[in-house]
From TrEMBL, chains A, B:
Pfam families, per the entry: FAD-oxidase_C, FAD_binding_4
Coiled coil: none
Single GO MF annotation: D-lactate dehydrogenase (NAD+) activity
SUPFAM superfamilies reported in the protein's UniProt record: FAD-binding/transporter-associated domain-like (SSF56176), FAD-linked oxidases, C-terminal domain (SSF55103)
EC numbers: 1.1.2.4
The species this protein was found in: Peteryoungia ipomoeae
InterPro entries reported in the protein's UniProt record: FAD-bd_oxidored_4_C, FAD-bd_PCMH, FAD-bd_PCMH-like_sf, FAD-bd_PCMH_sub2, FAD-linked_Oxase-like_C, Oxid_FAD_bind_N, Vanillyl_alc_oxidase_C-sub2
Principal EC category: oxidoreductase
Cofactor section: FAD
Similarity comment: Belongs to the FAD-binding oxidoreductase/transferase type 4 family.
Keyword vocabulary terms for this entry: FAD, Flavoprotein, Oxidoreductase, Transit peptide
Residue span, FAD-binding PCMH-type domain: 49-226
Protein's name according to its UniProt entry: D-lactate dehydrogenase (cytochrome)
Matching PANTHER family: D-LACTATE DEHYDROGENASE, D-LACTATE DEHYDROGENASE, MITOCHONDRIAL-RELATED
Lineage of producing organism: Bacteria, Pseudomonadati, Pseudomonadota, Alphaproteobacteria, Hyphomicrobiales
Length: 469, 469
């Protein structure tokens, strides 16, 4: 990619060598400067080229994080936080070099309070590990961005995913954070109460800041009771508009659908081919309901009636876990099914989010754009939120292809903005969407910049991301 | 009150006279400096003594707000936003004098999108006016702090109230804001999509900032479909613990209760006396369910079973609107019923919020404290959130009484903090709780202060609130 937005800031070589020496002395084997480690930590699910850090330190405590921040701040050396490396917009790239702080080994669940439906975890805990840990408590953590991301990374990128329509995004599910700020202090952003109006909402300032304002060292999360019953179903619609109207009606009636996912015709074709399924190749909704036996039965009946109103003639539904997994197989394998359409091509995963009344329009216009370009680019969406993803398959060795994909994503973002939507529902800005943020919220960027400069005056935290300083 | 926290900063007399002259010229009758107007705009529901602004300007547009901010910024004169004057912790006091910007006449609903369940309003729209406006659309705005507050004020204080257990607080229901910042620019904090990960979450930074970072000029809100059915009920419990355990179990099972309010024995006594009711004087829960006919029937059956498990023998429930109003009369009149216990005394309304597992302990210890002091101080709580209010009746002419009430609220706050709760669930910090915020989040105050100084370098927006500069 041309990477118009990536800033290769000046590297601070003198400071760096001091920091590398000090970290080697303090952390021994837990500080790595070999190329393999550095490459691995600039490698993410992103389509953007890797920018390697100068060293990777595997931290084990908040105290260690404080020491590293003090050291790097003193030498004005960049610090990039690293969770599971599943971000999509170059968030973990070391744009000006510096030290990658890897939280993999800070992976303890520090506390679970079943009565309060909350817990506190270290940032390296992955969402799957957390849910395995919680299983015996009857609770679960609902945010599911697909990848087995770390909780720290999910907080930093304001992740959401399939369950957000029912349970909200990370901003709604983080109760409090501890964060190491640029002066090396560790601050607590909130107590554990479920609501508070005590002071500025620093919790939500750090959630989604992509590591540019501080390093998160613990996260207090809201949890949910594991539903007594989960029901899931699949229904195809005559048109995209019908499928979207079924979604809007469901949301308007307040049916608490837990997931409602839209797969377009090309995505269904890819899934059928990949998973040897025989779904009709039409716009299809995958739905899931959580609740008591009676509640789930009720919601699914209500939804089936809505789906029928919009032309779904074959709502296939089950409350059996295995059958549900089978029914939902197409959705679960959507990413790999798409990649399998052309295994030799690279994939660019992007997302936008629009008011749900515009979802059908935005998807239809995007499909027309894809057809006009002749792209292989299936669409899958978290339809209840108006959020959808396009995975564009393209030859990243071809300059012409790269230019066409860049122009396509630019049009996609502009289309979403024109519909009062956002250039990213859940992937974040990172390096890849900086110019779209300018188009979206340009007048607000000076305020964001002022906040950044106030909290990180030497620009040590993840420089070169979100907006230009 | 001794008002330990109130800062009477130095007044900027020279700047003020320039500003007063300019505003008189520009706004004519819409700028008032008479004592009656100034007194009215420092008068709130607060127990704190009034600090009058030097003038009150009734604005009609964002452009006017920009002009006023530019003028005041140039002369470094304080600006205090004013909605309905229902805040409780001295938020609208003019601690260092200055200009009160009254939003009463900026009261237009700018846009409603029924399909997207959202709307945009000017800050002076009250929540009751908004709901009247919305009635024909089949939608409603759920946040209900009791008072008929303005939406701008509710956003500024991060208000919540009885419905928060189901619908969240203002932070969850504001999608975007326009805000006039210290340089007089008007910025938009977000687009209208239901979720976004585009840049810093400025929306939630301004929500709850109590007017100290800028003046909100429009608010985009999430709306809800008016439920097909509303069911309400009342049940008394043998003990506070039983009532709280019924709440915890309800929340844990994921029953989407719309309101679940706890009234203690003294509150029930006050309500019986005031509204000529005959409820047993025991800890009592008032509950409400929203949904389809079937869903509400289901939720209420499930709740009744839980209540019975914890000793409620007489769950009185109805789906008839008039009967429900009658049943809930005690809750609706709680404030005035409490005041009527001793009409000659002043009332101090305070709130704390704790993890729900500690709600019974916190209320019980507070009741014991009230009994030891011999106070008349009924308790009413938004139990599903762990949030409760104490209305302490006291003689504000007696120094001894004032000192005892101050010591009591200090103990209440310390008790909530010791239980990992917050010194305020929904009233905010204002002037009254500045020292409690220090106790609660002291280490984070430097970060809050840095944000304040970055966005409002001359401290013109509502100075002397939340924390010391």
């Amino acid at each position: 990619m041309a990477l118009k937005d990536v800033i290769d800031g000046p590297r601070n070589e003198i400071g760096l060598s001091e920091v590398v020496q000090a970290l080697s002395a303090q952390f021994g084997e837990r500080f790595q400067t070999g190329k393999a480690h550095r490459e691995q930590h600039a490698h993410s699910t992103s389509y953007l080229p890797a920018q390697l850090p100068d060293g990777v330190v595997f931290v084990e405590s908040g105290k260690e994080v404080q020491a590293i921040v003090r050291l790097c701040a003193h030498h004005k050396v960049p610090i990039i936080g690293f969770g599971a490396g599943t971000s999509l917009e170059g968030q973990v790239n070391a744009a000006s070099g510096g030290i990658c702080v890897d939280f993999t080994w800070m992976n303890k669940v520090l506390r679970v309070s079943p009565e309060d439906l909350d817990c506190t975890v270290e940032p390296g805990v992955t969402r799957e590990a957390l849910n395995v840990y919680l299983r015996d408590t009857g609770l679960f953590f609902p945010i599911d961005p697909g990848a087995n991301a770390s909780i720290g990374g999910m907080a930093s990128t304001r992740a959401s995913g399939t369950n957000a329509v029912r349970y909200g995004t990370m901003k709604d599910n983080v109760l409090a954070l501890t964060v190491v700020t640029a002066n090396g202090e560790e601050i607590t952003t909130a107590q554990r109460a479920r609501k508070s109006s005590a002071g500025y909402d620093l919790t939500r300032l750090f959630v989604g800041a992509e590591g540019t304002l501080g390093l998160i060292t613990s996260i207090t999360l809201r949890l949910q009771g594991i539903p007594e019953k989960i029901g899931g179903g699949v229904c195809g619609f005559p048109s995209l508009e019908d499928a979207c109207n079924a979604v809007i009606t469901t949301i308007q009636l307040g049916i608490p659908v837990a997931r409602i996912e839209l797969l377009d015709q090309m995505q269904m074709r890819a899934c059928n081919a990949y998973s040897k399924l025989t779904y009709p190749e039409q716009p299809t909704l995958f739905v899931e309901f959580h609740g008591t036996d009676e509640a789930v039965a009720l919601y699914s009946r209500q939804f089936a009636a809505i789906a029928a109103d919009f032309g779904c003639t074959d709502f296939r539904y089950t409350e059996d876990a295995e059958e549900r997994a089978q029914l939902w197989k197409a959705r679960h394998n959507a990413y790999w099914a798409s990649r399998a359409l052309a295994p030799h091509l690279a994939g660019l995963s992007t997302d936008v989010c629009v008011p749900i009344s515009r979802l059908a329009d935005c998807v239809a216009e995007t499909q027309a754009d894809i057809a006009a370009e002749g792209f292989l680019a299936p669409i899958v969406g978290h339809a209840g939120d108006g959020n959808f993803h396009v995975l564009v398959l393209f030859d990243d060795k071809s300059e012409e292809d790269v230019a066409r994909v860049e122009a396509f994503t630019e049009r996609l973002s502009a289309r979403a903005l024109a519909m009062q939507g956002t250039c990213t529902g859940e992937h974040g800005i990172g390096q890849g969407k900086m110019r779209y943020l300018e188009a979206e919220l340009g007048a607000a960027i000076p305020a964001m910049r002022a906040v950044k400069q106030a909290l990180d005056p030497d620009n040590i935290f993840n420089p070169g991301k979100i907006f230009r300083l």
